[in-house]
Each structure stands twice: as C-alpha cells, then as structure tokens.
Design brief:
Strand 1 (4-15) and strand 2 (18-27) form a beta hairpin. It is globular and about 65 Å long. It has helices spanning 76-85, 105-115, 134-143, 165-177, 200-206, 209-226, 241-249, 260-264, 286-298, 333-343, 348-362, and strands at 4-15, 18-27, 30-35, 43-48, 53-56, 58-63, 88-93, 122-125, 127-128, 148-151, 181-185, 229-232, 254-258, 303-304, 379-389, 408-418, 421-422. By secondary structure, the chain is an alpha/beta fold. The protein has eleven helices and 17 strands. It folds into two domains: 4-51, Urease, subunit C, domain 1; 57-364 and 387-409, TIM Barrel (Alpha-Beta Barrel). The two termini are 38 Å apart. Its EC number is 3.5.2.5. One of its GO terms (molecular function) is allantoinase activity.
Length: 436
C-alpha cells in the first residue's frame, strides 16, 4: 500500500455519518481515506488524538475583516490567525467596513491585493448590493464572489447604504437572473427608532423583534415573486421563525442563520455600560434564546456563524446609543456553541452541521464542510472537556474587545490543519473565488 502524508486517529472522529473511532488518512491536500481507528497504516506522520475529537475545519460565512481602509479594526492577518485558533479554516469576508466596499469588480481587486500573502486560512468573498450598482453585480458574480450582501436598514457606515424596497426587488431580479444568492440584513427601518438614552434596555427597545419579522416577511414575498434565492443573516428574534418555517414549507428558496452571541448570551446578562455586547440586531431575552435553539434544532435556522464585527476599544464607549455595534468572536464561536449546545443535549455532530457543513453548502464552497474522502484535509483537534478561561488580551483579534472576556467556556482547539498542513504562523491560505 502506498503511504500517506498524514494520518490522524481519534476515538471521536466526527464524520458525515456521525461520531465514531476512525483513522483519517491524508495524501497531498485531500482526505484520501477513512479507516478503522486501529488500522495499521504507513504515513510520514501518524498522530493519535485518543479521546480528543477530530472535526472538519469550520466554515464561517459571516466575517467582517475590514481591510483595506479600516485595518486598525481588524485585518486579514489578524482575522485569519484568530479563525485558525478557533478551528475555522474557511471564512467568507463581508463587503462592508472596508474602504472601498466590495461593490464592483474593481473594488474586489483592491481587496484581493490587500489580502495577498496574509491569509492563514482560506478566504472567500461576498459582493455588495447597494443603490445604483445593479450593473456591477454580474461582473462581481463572474469574478467569483459567493453572493451579495444587502441591507434593508442603515448599515452603520455611510459608504454602504441600504436598499429601498424597489431597489431590493431590482437587485433580486438581477441576481436571480444569473442564479446567484442574496444575503440580507433584515430589519425594517420603519420599525426602528433612535435609542431614548444610553442604557441597554433603551437600545433593545429601539430595535424590536417586530422589525426583523416585518423585514423577513418582505424578503420572503420578494423571493416568491422574483424566484430569487435568499438567505437571512444573523436572526436574533424568534418572531421570525414561523415566517421562515412556513416559507420553507412552501418551497421558497429562503434559508437563515443565527450567531453564537444570540445563542449563548441574553439581555438579562448585559451589564450597563458594557457595550462589548452591542450588536444589530440586538441580543434579546433568555426566553427568546431558548426559542432560537428550538429553531436551530428543527432546521429552520441552518447555520451558526460569527458575524465577527470588530472595532477599536475607543469606539465601544459606555453608551449604548453611541457605541459601535458589533461583536468580536471569530476565535470563540466553536467553544461558545459547544458550551451551550452540550448543556442542552446536542452533540459535536450537530455543531459540525451548523458551523461547517451547512455554511459550506450555503456559500457553495466545494471540498469543505466535512470529513469525507476527496474533501480538503481541513482538520481540527478539539478537546471538548477543556475549561477555557477567555482573556481578551490573549486572543488573536486585533483589538481585545469581546463580551466573552472573563467567561469560562468548554472546549479548546489544540491543532488546526489547512489542506493537510498545520496552521503554524506561515500564511498558506488561498482565495476561494467560485467558478460561475
């Protein structure tokens, strides 16, 4: 038998068929075979994880890298280091918060030049749909973006304005025409208000769950009318679940995601002035959180992704009306979801489905999302029993700003391999530009 480059053995190998003892064999950059755990094999390197878990690399399709233009908030080097440290081997970068935003093929070229040689994991890109750029959508699609992000309410940065209802219809018609995907920040601006003061309660009241539900209803209606394929980003309100479930049952091409902070944090826990918890849409009640978990268990919500939206500490002023809205958690999503998911009776195979398999399917990234023959050898050695005290200053995020600081999470990433090579500080990530 021809030898392998790498064999990784684990009694807790999480495969598409479930968790089992296995020996995973790698040749070149690909998973070549899966054998019984004790199978004698010839390999350049043979690693036995024993009772530690072997997972596929996670796929995080909602990451704001912010480079170029706001690289002091985050950048490709720091973001992809953080990703690898958290077991994420593929990210898809959002088109806003960088300057220029990725709303044309020329802007994508600027971003690619900025990212070149810095990526420790593989990186795909979303394009942006903004007022007046319908003509730019097909060229971006042809260049290989995974789909198009748009807002229905103000984005927080003036260079990425929201689409009106008429503009959203035009964008959906155009994107549907070439078979693309539209991912939508769904909050109805007519139901949003300015916070009445600096407290978290006032901020939360200014962005009610009804605003998400109304926006989702509008997106579903437009998807039915245009035949567009749509995905609802960062669902925070359980008010959306019945609308989504009914649309999915009717065959509407609509999917949805949520985020670790909506599944692990709650409004009742937010200390006054602690604006590391501020994000849009906001973290809601404990009862709402329970309903989101139920929606995830039923498959109404299919993906759990970070919406990593970092900023400098200076922008997180202790005033919920004035502070930048975004949660930094790219490195922490796996541990956060495993901590809460295990407590609720979910297994590692559930976490892998939500955080690897389904996001890869959503963004149509082939060769990712599961430990199966022919896929890239993106692997994670994970200790599911480790106690993990979070110190923001020790994270790879560029700025030590996260609501998880001081919390003890369950689970730690020990080693991450990208296409069969350990992520060891020497960038070997690639750009994932789709062939459309």
């Amino acid at each position: 038998m021809t030898g392998f480059d790498l064999v990784v053995r684990s009694r807790r190998t999480v495969t598409p068929e479930g968790e089992r003892p296995a020996a995973l064999a790698v040749r070149g950059e690909k998973i070549a075979a899966l054998y019984d755990y004790t199978e004698p094999l010839t390999a350049t390197e043979d690693i036995d994880l024993h009772d530690l878990a072997l997972l596929p690399g996670l796929v995080d399709t909602h990451v704001h890298v912010n480079e170029p233009g706001r690289t002091h908030w985050e950048g490709f080097d720091s973001a992809t280091r953080a990703a690898a440290a958290g077991g994420v081997t593929t990210i898809v970068d959002m088109p806003l918060n960088s300057l220029p935003p990725t709303v044309s093929a020329e802007a994508l070229d600027v971003k690619l030049r900025a990212a070149e040689g810095q990526c420790h994991v593989d990186v795909g890109f979303w394009g942006g749909a903004v007022p007046g750029n319908v003509k730019d959508l097909a060229p971006l699609h042809e260049r290989g973006v995974r789909g198009f992000k748009c807002f229905m309410s103000p984005s927080g940065v003036e260079e990425f304005p929201p689409l009106s209802a008429a503009e959203l219809r035009l964008a959906l018609e155009e994107i549907a025409g070439f078979g693309g995907l539209t991912v939508v920040h769904a909050e109805d601006p007519a139901l949003l208000a300015e916070p009445g003061g600096p407290t978290y309660r006032e901020f939360l009241d200014s962005r009610p769950g009804a605003s998400e539900r109304s926006a989702v209803e509008q997106v579903v209606r437009l998807a039915e009318e245009t035949g567009a394929r749509v995905h609802i980003l960062h669902v925070s309100s359980a008010d959306c679940l019945d609308v989504l479930e009914a649309a999915q049952a009717r065959g509407v091409a609509v999917s949805a995601e949520t985020c670790p902070h909506y599944l692990t944090l709650a409004a009742e826990q937010v200390p006054e002035g602690e604006t590391t918890y501020k994000c849009c849409p906001p973290i809601r009640s404990e009862a709402n959180r329970d309903l989101l978990w139920d929606g995830l268990a039923r498959g109404v919500l299919s993906c759990v992704v970070s919406d990593h939206s970092p900023s400098t500490a200076e922008l997180k002023v202790p005033d919920f009306a004035a502070a930048w809205g975004g949660i930094a958690s790219l490195q922490l999503g796996l541990a956060a979801i495993w901590t809460e998911g295990a407590r609720r009776g979910f297994g590692l195979e559930d976490v892998v489905r939500w955080m690897s398999t389904n996001p890869a399917t959503l963004a149509e990234i082939s060769g990712k999302g599961g430990l199966k023959v022919g896929n890239d050898a993106d692997l994670v050695a994970f200790d599911p029993e480790a106690d993990n005290l979070i110190d923001a200053a020790r994270l790879h995020h560029k700025n030590p700003v996260t609501p998880y600081h001081g919390r003890t999470l369950k689970g730690a990433v020990l080693t991450t391999w990208l296409r069969g090579r350990p992520v060891d500080g020497s960038p070997h990530g690639r750009f994932l530009l789709g062939a459309h």
